[in-house]
Amino acid sequence: MISMKYFFYKYIPIVISIFLAFSSCTDDDSTDPESPSTKAKPIINVRIDGVENQDNYTINLFEGINIQVTALMAADGESNLATIKMEQNGSNEINIPGEITFISAKGTEYDFSTNENQPINQAENEKLEISKQFADSSNISGIFDTTTYTITVTDDDGVSNTRIFNIIVLLPLKPAKRGEIYHFEGTNAGAFSLLQDSAYTTDSVYLELRNTDVDQAPFTGSFKIVGQNFISLVKASEGDIDFDQSTYQSAEKVYNQENKITYVDNPEINDIFIYHYAGANIYTVLKITAIEPNNNDCNCTNKGKMEFLYKKTL
C-alpha cells in the first residue's frame, strides 16, 4: 500500500512545474506589442463657418459654406498620418472630380469625390490642415435635405479615427407679406386669399382666412378656411417655431405634430398658424400682429380689424 507521504513527495513537484510553466506563458503574452485597438488614435477637428465639431450644421438652400479639417497624429506621437477619406451620403453628395477638392495649408490637393482613401503627403503626415470654400449655388447646398459626411484618418500602424457630421440644407420661406381682414358683415374686406395675396369682400373658392363673426356681434378675429384649395392648418405651440427664421422644414415639422383644423376661434396677438396645401408640399406660416375690435375703417356698424404677416414657400 502506497503511503500518503510517498504520494505527496512524488506528485506535488509535478503540479508546481505545471503552474510555473503556465505563469511563464502568461508573462510572455503580456510582452506582446500593443494592439492597434488600444493605441491612441489620430485627432480630427472639423470647423464649418467658424463653428467647431458639431453633429449638425445648417445652411440655406444655395448658400455658400467654408469647411476646414485638421488632422493630427496621435497624442503619443508614435505613428505618422497615412490616409484621409471623406465619405458622403445624402442628396447633396458630390461625385464630380474637382468639385470637392480640398487644398491643404501646404498646397496639396485632396480630391474626395470618390469616397476613397487619399494618401497624406509626407510633408503633412504629422499635421494636416485642409479647407474648401464652397460658393453660393454650389452642389453642396443645391437640394434642401440632409447629407452626412464621414471623415476617417488612419495612421501608419493602421489605427483610425472618424468624425461624422451632417450638413442640413434648409429651404427658407419667402419674405413676409402683410394682410388684414375686417368684420365680415362690415363693408370692408372680411376675407383673404394667402395664395393670391388678395382681400375679398364676399365668399370665394380661394379663401384661407374668412372672418366668422356674425352681424351685430363683436369682432373677435375668428376665421375659417373656405374654398377649394383642400387645405388645413394647425396652431403652433408657443416656442415651436420662430416666424422670422421659419423654413420649409420647421413649418413641416410643426404642422405634422399638431392637430389639424379648418377654423380658429378667438385668435390672439402673436399666435402662429401653419397652412398646408394638400397634394403639394406647400406651406404658409401666418402670425397675428394686431386685433382691433373697435376699428372703424369701414365707417359702419360691424366694426373690427385683424392684421397679420405671412410667409410662403411659393
Please give the structural blueprint.
Blueprint: H1 4-29, E1 43-48, E2 51-52, E3 56-60, E4 65-72, E5 81-90, E6 101-104, E7 109-111, E8 118-119, E9 127-134, E10 146-155, E11 160-170, E12 177-182, E13 191-193, E14 198-200, E15 206-211, E16 223-227, E17 231-235, H2 248-257, E18 263-264, E19 272-277, E20 282-292, E21 305-312
Parallel strand pairs: 3-11
Antiparallel strand pairs: 1-2, 1-4, 4-9, 5-8, 5-10, 6-7, 6-9, 10-11, 12-21, 13-14, 13-15, 15-16, 16-18, 17-19, 19-20, 20-21
Instruction: Write the element-wise H/E pattern from the N-terminal end onward.
Output: HEEEEEEEEEEEEEEEEEHEEEE
The number of helical segments is 2
The average pLDDT score comes to 89
Oligomer: single chain
**Helical amount:** 10-25%
Percent of residues in β-strands: 35-45%
User: What summary fits the major beta sheet?
Assistant: 6 strands, antiparallel
What Rg do the Cα atoms give? 34 Å
Counting helices, strands and paired strands, the structural category is mainly beta
Contiguous uncertain segments of 5+ residues? 1-31
Based on Cα principal axes, name the global outline. rod-shaped
Number of strands: 21
- For the biggest β-sheet, the strand order reads 2-1-4-9-6-7
Distance between the termini: 106 Å
